[in-house]
Specification:
- The structure holds 2 protein chains of 2 kinds.
- By secondary structure, chain A is mostly helical.
- Chain A is built from 12 helices and no strands.
- In chain A, helix 2 (13-38) runs parallel beside helix 7 (138-167), helix 2 (13-38) packs antiparallel against helix 9 (179-201) and helix 3 packs antiparallel against helix 10.
- Chain A is globular and about 55 Å long.
- The N and C termini of chain A lie far apart (56 Å).
- In chain A, 55% of the residues are buried.
- Helix content of chain B is 81%, strand content 0%.
- The radius of gyration of chain B is 21 Å and the shape is globular.
- Chains A and B meet through helix 3, helix 5, helix 6, helix 10 and helix 12 of A and helix 4, helix 7, helix 8, helix 12 and helix 14 of B.
């Protein structure tokens, strides 16, 4: 038993850091992702994840800590998207136009960084894009876990009014729920969690962590709070599966293993035939 | 950058001499040709994308070019096959999943995108060899486009445009009012699938030049700009193609003289046009609200 424990990944500090940060990030992404899917704002999440790349590269190019750029850029763009649209729901085309330019800007900062700074870290761009959870340090892991815990708490605190505002905006507004403010606040939280998750799975892939567990949870249950909890639990389990798989097979990058676990679970929910097909699509969507 | 050590070109403000110098390099001529083809094809396809509010699907199809290229290189075949195979496949997957409601559709599209990108990352991790780094595939390069590539691009582009010309009218009808179109016997669903396949082909083609992340810019921004400027379909379609062409050629010229990536310049020029158009539109709206100036109206506003 002891020899088994010694050989297990839990004896290795880098794996413990990854596990700590990964669990917290997955739980936060699961909670935020549920609302993103429910509000049909997955595309906004996608845009925020790409903005994370640009922010990180800009910070590196100007010599700041990468995380500063991640958080500043995602929150700023989340607020911008929030103010651009009615009731903090911006139009697809606006999102598409803004973020494709921001991606171009990301390419610019990457070049700036790799040509102007002495390239101690020539692969920084790749690790921002695809994540490097096994390289996370103890202090970053603790910071990541604390930020993620903050996100989770905030989401749980505003869950009730946000759910109301999401499911029936007009009625919620009439009842005095600050729909617009909630929308903006939610986008900010989404921005923070996008910045946060970028460190684990990379800016290109965090969309999967936001969309897949939430999509699966929504397929499995119609009850909002149960789906919210299920989304977080699924995300955490998928994160663990991915980390263990990547540890067992070192050729496989952890981000890929996590995404595969998430996609597999989501695909599996399509095999379960649901007794009632819900056709109540949101009328104004 | 290769260019920096080749000639260190400088802009001399003598336009004719500058262009003669730039076009004395065959790779620049090919880049201008390829850029023109991709710009026009993506803008025309993108115009329908914007009209149909399918930008998220378009973005997903375009990112999928990355695992396509990486997988093809890993298998030892030409990247072109990878681009076309995966872009069209992703388009078909999205087409098959369409109509399952807004929420599920967006969650599905996002998952497809993230998973395939992760697969691309795996291919790169497994290959570890001569693959020119993910950043080139993602952000594109205009160096080393061969004449054969231009011919292939032109062929595929003409194919896409020809099919689009054939289905253009019913597609426009089906995009603007799907219910009425279906009632009149237009095959809305079949058109939607066919359109997504065209989108896949156009993306696969443009990805090779602009990089998988930036082809999306050429699809969405010029079309959005054109639709802001005019409501007439034919005119805005032509305008979108023209704007995309201008952004691409300006971007190529800028990227030739400055050591920054082509994608950055193309997206920046396109986005500048978009911001100008939206700004002008807003200004126009404000002015037309002020101009009639019946004093009573001013008070209520």
């Amino acid at each position: 038993m002891t020899s088994l424990l010694a050989a297990s990944p839990l004896a290795q500090p880098f794996f413990l850091h990854a596990l700590l940060a990964g669990t917290a990030i997955a739980a936060a992404s699961g909670l935020v992702g549920y609302f993103l899917v429910l509000r049909a704002q997955v595309f906004t999440g996608d845009a925020l994840s790409h903005v994370a790349f640009t922010g990180a590269m800009a910070a590196l190019a100007f010599g700041y800590d990468l995380r500063l750029g991640l958080f500043a850029a995602t929150v700023a763009i989340a607020l911008l998207f929030g103010t651009l649209g009615r009731a903090a729901r911006p139009d697809d085309v606006v999102i598409g136009s803004v973020f494709s330019w921001l991606l171009g800007l990301g390419a610019f900062f990457t070049t700036l960084y790799t040509t102007s700074r002495s390239t101690t870290n020539g692969n920084a761009g790749v690790s921002v894009l695809f994540g490097s959870i096994f390289g996370i340090s103890a202090s970053s892991a603790v910071v990541a876990a604390l930020v993620a815990a903050g996100i989770c708490l905030t989401v749980l605190l505003i869950a009730r009014p946000l759910l109301f505002a999401t499911l029936d905006e007009a009625v919620a507004a009439a009842r005095g729920v600050p729909v617009r403010l909630l929308g903006l606040g939610f986008l900010t939280i989404a921005g923070v969690s996008a910045a946060e998750a970028t460190q684990a799975v990379g800016s290109l892939l965090l969309l999967g962590l936001l969309a897949a567990p939430a999509g699966a949870a929504i397929r499995l249950t119609d009850r909002p709070y149960r789906a919210l909890a299920l989304s977080a639990v699924l995300a955490v389990l998928e994160m663990w599966t991915g980390l263990l798989a990547a540890h067992a097979l070192p050729q496989i990058p952890p981000s890929f293993a996590i995404m595969t676990a998430a996609t597999a679970v989501y695909s599996a929910t399509f095999l379960i035939r649901r007794p009632v097909t819900r056709t109540a699509a949101p009328a104004g969507a | 950058m290769l260019l920096a050590d080749a000639a260190a070109p400088a802009w001399s403000w003598n336009l004719i001499a500058d262009f003669q110098q730039m076009w004395s390099f065959p790779f620049m001529v090919n880049a201008f040709r390829a850029g023109a083809i991709t710009a026009v094809v993506s803008a025309v396809v993108g115009w329908f994308v914007v009209l149909r509010r399918q930008t998220f699907a378009a973005h997903t199809v375009s990112t999928v070019a990355f695992p396509g290229a990486a997988g093809a290189v890993l298998l030892g075949v030409s990247a072109v096959y990878g681009y076309f195979a995966l872009c069209v496949a992703a388009a078909l997957v999205i087409a098959a999943l369409r109509g399952s409601g807004d929420r599920e559709e967006s969650a599905l599209t996002g998952t497809v995108q993230a998973f395939l990108l992760a697969a691309g990352f795996l291919f790169i991790a497994l290959y570890k060899g001569l693959l020119e780094g993910p950043q080139t595939i993602l952000f594109g390069t205009f160096l080393g486009i061969t004449s054969t590539q231009v011919t292939v691009l032109a062929g595929a582009g003409i194919g896409v445009l020809a099919v689009l010309a054939l289905i253009g009218r019913p597609l426009l009808f089906a995009s603007l009012d799907p219910q009425v179109a279906a009632g009149r016997g237009v095959p809305v669903r079949a058109l939607s699938v066919l359109f997504l396949v065209l989108l896949g082909a156009a993306t696969a083609e443009a990805s090779q030049i602009t990089g998988t992340l930036l082809v999306f810019a050429l699809m969405v921004i010029p079309a959005a700009t054109a639709q802001t400027l005019t409501a007439r379909p034919g005119l805005s379609l032509a305008l979108a193609a023209l704007l995309a062409l201008a952004a691409t050629w300006l971007g190529l010229t800028a990227a030739y003289y400055a050591p920054y990536p082509l994608g950055f310049f193309v997206t920046s020029f396109a986005f500048a046009g978009y911001v100008l158009a939206r700004g002008g539109h807003a200004l126009h709206a404000v002015r037309s609200r002020l101009r009639p100036s019946p004093p009573a109206k001013e008070v209520t506003a």
